[in-house]
Amino acid sequence: MGKDLCSKGEGFHLLKQLEGILESDKLIDEVGFLHPTQFAALNEETGNSLHPSVTCATTSSGDEDLCHSSTIFWKRDHKLAISTQALLPLYNAAKHAYMNAARQYGRVANLASKTDEIFDGNSTNSFLVSEEVLEYEMMKHSKALLLLSCDFGSAWNSRFYYSHSPKFKACELIFLVKWKHIIAKKQTLSLFMDELLLSALILSYSPKAEHAWSHRCWVIKMIAVKYGNLQEIVGRDSELVEQIAEKSKMNYRAWNHRCWLISYMKREQVLDELNKSRKWAELHVADNCCFHYRQRLMLSMLEHGSPKQSPNLCSDYMPGLHKLLKEELDWDEMLIKRYIGREALWIHRRFLSQCWIKHFVSDVQGVYCNSGDRDCSNPNTGVFMDGEMQLVSSCLTIRDSVFEDCRAQAMLAVTYILWVSKQIPQHQGIIELQGRLRNFGDVKTLLNKFCPEKSLLWDGLLS
């Protein structure tokens, strides 16, 4: 049976089946690769046999059923399973079919660019028909190939090229004539949505596939150029990242894509994302990616309120900014006290403190909030530091605990307050701050007690 499955003819037969499944159901949103022995149990669980469009492959002579007691493909409710037994012949067949279609397309395009007959209407139409057929074949084969090998860069590039804007194809008059019909037909929202579905399908089994994320960014850029309004698409993409992050922890590429989406969000959508991502962050306090995403959202809010964009910054924007930062600081403090020793929470607090100091303590931008405004913070170092000192003090009360999390909490608290002390400008009362730090005892002694292996680092920081 292994020889039969690896034979060239059976590989193309399986490829034809796979492409037929993908063509019959364009809403497939999840794919998995199962061992042949798992298909029987899968069918028992669902109480369903093979999908009508999925048939078992047989040898060319018809003597042996390649599926035997298992199956090659299974599909139900827009979910697709492929037998691992068929992956190698499927990949070889898909790669061969794709490369062959690409070579034929290249020859036809080259012939069309060299012949003078292209300016004749009948010849042009014949070239267009031929190229449309080959183009369809390339898109079909590349989809199957990418499903089997998501890092096949050439296949991604071909989908990029043959669905792209005219500027890559109409460099000369000859290409303008040849491509005008295809481009007019292809530049549709449905085409771009199909590409988003394809990348989401591949990410369902390979959530860190860099090519898939890059292709998704390109598609969204194209939609933004042609259609403008992206609120719904950006919202769905943000939800997709959250779903993927639930299955794939610390997925930098997914979260980086979500951060990139912020550039297409309006202010109201940014606030909505801040609210929606809070619950997820509370359940994943060790995942720094989500807190980084919240930081990017807040930076987006801060950019909207910069002095250059808002001349009346103090009266129009500072009260809202003060409330936003205060709520985030209080929320972060609650998490720090609830989840002991989580470094991501302290890193997030450093970001919040830096924003607070920049906008409400220091005169970095030459803009002060009116201290007479009841909604604004008093730009006094002591007001902010009192709250931070109380937090650190509460974390140091458990410094004698033998548990590692408690020791880590104390070490993170001391290093945090030490870091904050270095962010306060010299003219804002640094001497007073150093006096407050001494209330905890010798900082260097505390650091060496909680983390003696970094004694050289503490010496350098405190010198």
Automatic annotation (TrEMBL):
Domain of life: Eukaryota
Residue ranges crossing the lipid bilayer per the database entry: none
Protein name in UniProt: Protein prenyltransferase alpha subunit repeat-containing protein 1
A family per Pfam: PPTA
Keywords from the named record: Prenyltransferase, Repeat, Transferase
GO cellular component, one term: CAAX-protein geranylgeranyltransferase complex
Family of the protein in this entry: Belongs to the protein prenyltransferase subunit alpha family.
Molecular function per GO: CAAX-protein geranylgeranyltransferase activity; protein farnesyltransferase activity
Source organism of the structure: Kingdonia uniflora
Classification via InterPro entries: Prenyl_trans_a
PANTHER family xrefs: PROTEIN FARNESYLTRANSFERASE ALPHA SUBUNIT/RAB GERANYLGERANYL TRANSFERASE ALPHA SUBUNIT (PTHR11129), PROTEIN PRENYLYLTRANSFERASE SUPERFAMILY PROTEIN (PTHR11129:SF10)
